[in-house]
Amino acid sequence: MSGAPVIDVRESPPEASARGALRWRDRLGPAELLFVGRGAPRRGEPLAPELLPAGVETAWLEQVHSARLLETGEAGAAGAGDGLLVGRPGLAAVVAVADCVPVLLAAAGRVAAVHAGWRGLAAGIVARAAERLAPDWAWIGPAIGPCCYEVGEEVAAAVVAASAPEVRRAGAAGRPHLDLAGAAARQLAAARGVGIREIRILRHCTRCREEWLESHRRDRERAGRNLAAIWLPPDAAHP
Questions:
Q1: Would you say residue 187 lies in a domain?
Q2: To pair with 116 at 20 to 30 A between CA atoms, which of 139, 148, 171, 229?
Q3: What distance in Å separates the CA atoms of residue 208 and residue 12, rounded to the nearest whole number?
């Protein structure tokens, strides 16, 4: 993969909020971001004050494993889709994940949050979001890793076709394993007309990191959800 530099922050542990939720925080250009693992509220529930700054509201999606992108300037449910674009300071775009890839994007005056499962990656949702937003910065959060994501041949072929052969690896049992975060990074780097300055990847496997992260493949119906949010500060000036 050529183009945008990648900073791999594999060893970054979470910090605990005042109420015990495990979180990672970062800044992408003008935007701020938050990823919450164990202890995250359910999708659509308010984020506790110690997780989001005062004055920041949230907008979220009814996620359907699609390549559909929506845009909103209002807090609350934005509709059915898997990519949410926001241009209003003080409004956070939020996605929920339990093994899929959270991708957060930031440009000078807008941000986006993308929920990318294998279906969305195969349909090119990450590249579509990048081409629509033209971000300068990207952040890819914890997802199920190639150590644990065993799939069938059809799924592997679909994701490889939408990214690169390197995202497929041979598992111990001979079945293919996929690197979903790597596939998302390759879609970002290859997006048409997009000059991303930096891609950051937080490389923790959701299935392996039981003490930190929720995983549907590990816990099935008992699994909660991890949350990823990105916003422009409330006092950010419109471009």
A1: no
A2: 171
A3: 15
Give me the residue label for tokens 């799924």. Answer: 155
Strands 176-178 and 168-170: antiparallel
Q: For residue 217, what are the domain limits?
A: 18-43+55-115+125-145+194-231
Which amino acid is present at 145? Answer: G
H or E segment at 187? helix 180-190
- 237 belongs to a structural domain: no
**Could you give the CA distance from residue 117 to residue 101 in angstroms, rounded to a whole number?**
6
**CATH assignment at residue 77:** 3.60.140.10
**Contact between 112 and 104 (Cβ < 8 Å):** yes
In a domain, 9, yes or no: no
**Is the Cα torsion angle 109, 78, 143, 185 positive or negative in sign?**
negative
Give me the tens of pLDDT residue by residue for the chain, a chain 239 residues long. 445 567 777 678 999 998 899 999 999 999 999 999 999 987 667 777 789 999 999 999 999 999 999 999 999 999 999 999 999 999 999 999 999 999 999 999 999 999 999 999 999 999 999 999 999 999 999 999 999 999 999 999 999 999 999 999 998 888 999 999 999 999 998 888 788 889 999 999 999 999 999 999 999 988 899 999 999 999 876 55
Are 202 and 24 within 8 A, CB to CB? yes
Domain count, the chain: 1
**The pair of three-digit structure tokens given for residue 79, joined into one six-digit string:** 């509709």
Is-above-0.85 flag for pTM? yes
* Within-domain flag for 23: yes
- Hunting for tokens 């041979």 — which residue is that? 170
